């Protein structure tokens, strides 16, 4: 079926290089020998060869090769790749974002040249294209559309299946350009054409039928209502009608569309709006921001729509501009801070041409002053970022505006419950806030992220605008409500966490998304207009939320004197001291302080009559006593904790008991018992479906196997768990611990190249977690033959252990002893001492930088 469309009857045979194309016989010869070529690939080659040197758009090729079918654009890319493998990469040129061009020269045609016989298409196709050119008001040449290939395919499929499709999205996100591109691609599909009606300049909704009639050259006699006469004029027409920018005349647009659907069934309707029309027949297509790379160093950056658009727009003003290794990070950062919003990216790109990348990035905090000067041909509201947001804001009623501006205090998103706590007032109860939040989502000013638990956010530009509006109203009150809402949230999730009503992975999914909000709330609470009691409560509840222990220490330790004074709410004080005892504080807080904090928390929870909290404090107390080699008291604390344990408590309490029992058995040298108990903990974690608990216990198994052997078993289990972490990420602290173990295990086995690969993967994880495990790194660099780096890290390890009193595990002691003895022999004594001293002066940020640089060096190592 595809042959006639792509290979017309009068298309002659032609030769280029070693190839001869015979369309009528559907053959391609190479040096006279037929080539086996699939039907679609052959049709595609004919479609391109019939138009040598001409740009053929992707949409035109889809229509020619797959007529009447809706196919994904990657089908086209697959066939292009197949042709290039046969013909060579130079025969078909890609025009990014637009289409393809046949570049071969016809050097000996079997008949007349294809371009002479068929300059554009078959007579039938030429007729349709000519008709389409007359029956549309869409320009023949449209600007390139970046990053929207998937949107174009999806939108075409929806238009094939539904009488009404509304393209919905925020102002400046590219709804109009997307609708225009789809309409242009479908220009030949309707006998009466494709027509686009721009409504942005229409101030009187009553004139909407007249505006549509004028665009379609329909005369309204004036004998009846304009809408009725318009529908009568459309009743016998078969066309696509695009209504662009409906949001400010939404009710009138909905009434017009409904009337057309009922009275003109052959009219297909495509609307663009910041808010849906809310009609029964409506199919919504929500446009998302352009795609962004997760990292600034991502490969194939131009595959991301935001980056491709940014580069193209800068080059339009400065043809010499190109993305390089030096400016890549700045470009990605600009696009990311602008949320991939096309309008904002275009405005920023225009500034880059005159100011440069760095200055534009540095000035984005003043984005409403910076991002101006859009093209004069665009809508006035798209000539500045502020104008675009003002247009959207002006469409809200007073209550919606109040909720919108108060939502600006949230950083990184929010839940419905948090929104209700912050955005309400005496006149807006929680149900009213919910209704207005729903309206803001409909109007594309708030983004609803997909997920099991609904979560909402403002794009950064919308948030900046909301805060600007808030500054004129009730900033202080909104910030106060936000901080108190975060306190209440943390109190609630902390209770569920420590009382084990939530699995640890459920707790993380609930709590970790609020990290930015927690930081914002603390910034207010510790400021001049803040509240010291709120600041104390936020710090006390923070450790279970923050996955970055050093940051949490910076919050907790300055408050130590305040909590020692005994003037703080006992519940908050108990949580504060409990936070200091947490595992993620080890290595960042003095061990004696952790031991003292465990005793203080235990006393407060005992006095409050909270058995589950008392159990948790006893487990922590046992751990810190064992770290001081006080195994008798550590066992006593564990026995007391076991006495609190109840059969009806969640299984996580049993899990925590098992891990502590395993650790004490290990300290006592009962390695077989420790390993068996640890396997029990793995089974408990798996039985309750808590992946994080299961993986922590499995990591303990790896560590034990490394100590007792065989080391091959430790490597096998560690590599297996690492693969699962890559597919199913866990908190950075858990992943950092496993990767550190693997670095040590593989290095000790002599598998140094594998250990180095794991080390490179571990660096960003350890940076996030602020857990660094110096000893394993030190040993790796000794095995790599980088003796100066190894000695430097040995000095850092010695200093850290002396500073915090954290004892080494047996595995670490073994690595240190072997490497230290070797380094003392292999390095001159003065050089060794100097490296130790230099390492002792480094903090973790600095020596991680040393590690990164050392890994970038040669992988040469000694056996």
The first-to-last residue Cα distance is 66 Å
How big a fraction of the residues is strand? 5-15%
Task: Please bin the fraction of helical residues.
Answer: 55-70%
Main sheet? Answer: 5 strands, parallel
User: Nearest-angstrom radius of gyration?
Assistant: 34 Å
What is the number of strand segments?
14
- Quaternary organisation: single chain
User: By helix and strand content, what is the structural category?
Assistant: alpha/beta
What's the tally of helices?
42
How are the strands of the largest sheet arranged?
9-10-11-8-12
Shape: globular
Given as residue ranges, the uncertain stretches (5+ residues, pLDDT < 50) are 1-10, 109-133, 374-382, 859-863
Mean pLDDT: 83
Q: Which key phrases capture this entry?
A:
42 helices; 863 residues; 59% helix; 5-stranded parallel sheet; 7% strand; 4-stranded antiparallel sheet; alpha/beta; disordered N terminus; disordered C terminus; globular
């Amino acid at each position: 079926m595809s042959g006639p469309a792509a290979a017309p009857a009068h298309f002659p045979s032609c030769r280029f290089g070693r190839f001869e194309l015979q369309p009528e016989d559907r053959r391609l010869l190479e040096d006279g020998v037929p080539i086996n070529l699939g039907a679609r690939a052959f049709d595609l080659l004919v479609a391109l060869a019939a138009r040598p040197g001409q740009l053929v758009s992707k949409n035109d090729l889809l229509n020619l090769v797959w007529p009447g079918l809706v196919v994904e654009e990657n089908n086209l890319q697959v066939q292009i790749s197949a042709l290039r493998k046969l013909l060579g990469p130079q025969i078909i040129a890609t025009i990014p974002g637009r289409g393809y061009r046949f570049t071969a020269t016809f050097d000996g045609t079997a008949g007349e040249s294809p371009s002479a016989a068929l300059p554009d298409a078959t007579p039938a196709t030429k007729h349709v294209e000519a008709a389409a050119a007359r029956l549309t008001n869409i320009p023949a040449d449209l600007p390139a559309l970046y990053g929207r290939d998937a949107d174009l395919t999806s939108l075409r499929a929806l238009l094939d299946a539904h009488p009404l499709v509304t393209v919905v999205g925020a102002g400046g996100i590219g709804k109009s350009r997307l609708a225009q591109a789809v309409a242009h691609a479908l220009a030949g599909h309707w006998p009466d054409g494709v027509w686009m009606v721009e409504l942005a300049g229409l101030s009187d909704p009553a004139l909407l039928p007249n505006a549509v009639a004028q665009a379609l050259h329909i005369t309204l006699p004036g004998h009846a209502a304009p809408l009725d006469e318009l529908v009568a004029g459309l009743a016998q027409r078969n066309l696509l009608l695009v209504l662009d920018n409906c949001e400010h005349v939404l009710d009138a647009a909905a009434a017009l569309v409904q009337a057309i659907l009922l009275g003109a069934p052959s009219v297909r309707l495509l609307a663009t709006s910041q808010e849906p029309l809310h009609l029964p027949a409506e199919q919504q297509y929500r446009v998302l921001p352009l795609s962004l790379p997760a990292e600034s160093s991502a490969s194939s950056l131009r595959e991301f729509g935001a980056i491709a658009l940014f580069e193209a727009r800068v080059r339009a003003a400065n043809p010499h501009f190109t993305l390089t290794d030096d400016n890549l990070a700045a470009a990605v950062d600009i696009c990311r801070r602008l949320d991939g919003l096309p309008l904002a990216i275009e405005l920023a790109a225009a500034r880059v041409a005159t100011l440069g990348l760095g200055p534009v990035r540095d000035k984005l905090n003043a984005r409403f002053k910076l991002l101006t000067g859009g093209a004069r041909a665009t809508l006035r509201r798209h000539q500045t970022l502020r104008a675009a947001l003002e247009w959207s804001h002006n469409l809200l009623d007073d209550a919606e505006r109040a909720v919108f501006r108060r939502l600006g205090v949230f950083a990184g998103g929010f839940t419905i419950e948090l929104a209700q706590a912050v955005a309400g007032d005496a006149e807006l109860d929680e149900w009213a806030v919910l209704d207005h939040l729903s309206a803001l989502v409909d109007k594309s000013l708030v983004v609803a992220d997909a997920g099991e638990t609904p979560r909402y956010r403002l794009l950064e530009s919308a948030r900046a605008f909301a805060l600007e509006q808030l500054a004129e109203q009730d900033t202080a009150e909104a910030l106060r409500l936000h901080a108190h809402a975060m306190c209440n949230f943390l109190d609630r999730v902390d209770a569920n966490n420590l009382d084990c009503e939530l699995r640890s992975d459920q707790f993380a999914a609930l709590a970790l998304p609020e990290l930015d909000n927690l930081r914002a709330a603390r910034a207010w609470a510790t400021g001049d207009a803040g509240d010291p009691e709120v600041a104390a409560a936020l710090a006390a509840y923070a450790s279970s939320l923050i996955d970055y222990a050093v940051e949490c220490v910076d919050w907790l330790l300055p408050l130590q004197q305040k909590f020692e004074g005994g003037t703080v709410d006992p519940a908050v004080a108990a949580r504060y001291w409990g936070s200091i005892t947490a595992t993620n504080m080890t290595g960042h807080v003095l061990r004696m302080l952790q031991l003292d904090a465990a005793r203080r928390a235990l006393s407060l929870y005992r006095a409050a009559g909270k058995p589950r909290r008392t159990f948790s404090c006893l487990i922590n107390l046992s751990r810190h006593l064992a770290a001081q080699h006080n195994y008798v008291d550590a066992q006593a604390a564990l026995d007391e904790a076991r006495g609190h344990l109840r059969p009806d408590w969640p299984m996580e309490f049993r899990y925590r008991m098992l891990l502590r029992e395993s650790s004490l058995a290990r300290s006592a040298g009962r390695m077989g018992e420790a390993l068996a108990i640890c396997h029990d903990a793995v089974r408990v974690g798996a039985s309750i479906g808590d992946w994080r608990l299961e993986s922590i216990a499995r990591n303990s198994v790896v560590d034990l196997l490394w100590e007792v052997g065989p080391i091959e078993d430790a490597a096998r289990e560690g590599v297996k768990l690492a693969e699962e972490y890559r597919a199913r990420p866990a908190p950075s602290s858990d992943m950092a611990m496993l990767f550190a173990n693997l670095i040590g295990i593989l290095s000790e086995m002599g598998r140094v190249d594998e250990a180095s690969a794991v080390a490179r993967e571990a660096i960003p994880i350890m940076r996030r977690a602020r857990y660094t495990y110096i000893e394993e790194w030190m040993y790796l660099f000794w095995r790599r033959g980088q003796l100066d780096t190894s000695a430097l890290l040995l000095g850092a390890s010695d200093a850290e252990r002396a500073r915090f009193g954290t004892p080494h595990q047996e595995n670490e002691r073994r690595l240190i002893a072997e490497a230290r003895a070797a380094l003392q022999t292999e390095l001159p004594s003065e050089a060794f001492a100097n490296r130790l001293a230099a390492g002792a002066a480094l903090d973790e940020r600095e020596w991680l930088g040393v590690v990164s640089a050392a890994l970038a060096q040669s992988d040469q190592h000694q056996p």
